[in-house]
Structure formats: structure tokens, C-alpha cells
UniProtKB/TrEMBL annotation:
<feature type="signal peptide">
    <location>
        <begin position="1"/>
        <end position="16"/>
    </location>
</feature>
<keyword id="KW-0732">Signal</keyword>
<dbReference type="Pfam" id="PF13799">
    <property type="entry name" value="DUF4183"/>
</dbReference>
<dbReference type="InterPro" id="IPR025237">
    <property type="entry name" value="DUF4183"/>
</dbReference>
<feature type="domain" description="DUF4183">
    <location>
        <begin position="51"/>
        <end position="114"/>
    </location>
</feature>
<protein>
    <submittedName>
        <fullName>Uncharacterized protein DUF4183</fullName>
    </submittedName>
</protein>
């Protein structure tokens, strides 16, 4: 009689673990700043329009000395004559806003809006309960 291969037969079934319960608390406290400036002739030079921080006023109409630093977790919008500008046209430092164009007319209003979301937190206040998978092996 020729040799034959004997194979072990194993059947298995399993249930996937199930997560239930748990709670996550998320707190979003954005810091939003808006500033307005009017372009003057001395601001337009060297192929760019540079608006110093002192050229802006805040929402209350108060003069400012420093602009907010560009946010890592946020965004900024620049509006010239009420039109939002492309992001790559401007750069912000605490000292000034530089817009990479000289085509802004003298007297045009420039609005700077800065939104910072770095004060956002998420914590698991109640850990979820995860069931143990059920595995049955039948030999």
C-alpha cells in the first residue's frame, strides 16, 4: 500500500472583541484675533507691502504694538479691500504683516484674522470596557 499523507483537521471560531461605554471630553477654546489697517504709501516698497504692527488697530479700535505669532495649530486670513487673499501671498511676524505685492492701493483696508486652536484638549474621562474575544478550537 502506498504511503499517504495524514493531515490534522482543526476548525476554529472566534468572536471579535466589543468596546462599550467610555467617554471622551473635548474642550475647544479658540483664541481669535482681528486687526484692521489702512495701507499708506510708505508701506509699499521693495516689491512688497509691509504693514507694521503699530499700523493696526484691534476690534475695539485700540492701537496695538505687537501682532500675534503665527499659530502652529490654527490659521490666519488676510483680506484686502474685503477680499480674502491666497495664503502664500502673505507672511506674519509679531512685528509686521508682509503682503507680497505692490498692487494694493493707498487707502485700502487690510483685515488680519488670526485663529489659534492650541488650547484644544481631549481626555478620556471614562475608559471603555473591551470584551475578551471568545476563541473555540475544535480538533
Amino acid at each position: 500500500m502506498p504511503a499517504s499523507l495524514i493531515k490534522l483537521f482543526i476548525a476554529a471560531s472566534a468572536t471579535a472583541p466589543v468596546a462599550s461605554g467610555g467617554a471622551v471630553t473635548t474642550s475647544v477654546l479658540p483664541a481669535v484675533f482681528r486687526f484692521v489697517a489702512t495701507v499708506t504709501a510708505p508701506m509699499i516698497a521693495g516689491g512688497v507691502t509691509t504693514i507694521p504692527a503699530a499700523g493696526f488697530v484691534n476690534d475695539n479700535g485700540d492701537a496695538i504694538t505687537d501682532l500675534p505669532a503665527p499659530p502652529v495649530n490654527g490659521y490666519l486670513n488676510v483680506y484686502v479691500n474685503g477680499m480674502m487673499q491666497e495664503a502664500n501671498l502673505s507672511s506674519l511676524t509679531t512685528a509686521s504683516l508682509v503682503i507680497n505685492t505692490i498692487d494694493i492701493p493707498v487707502g485700502a483696508p487690510v483685515v488680519l484674522e488670526v485663529a489659534d486652536f492650541s488650547n484644544t484638549t481631549s481626555t478620556i474621562t471614562t475608559p471603555p470596557v473591551i470584551s475578551v474575544p471568545d476563541i473555540d478550537i475544535i480538533v
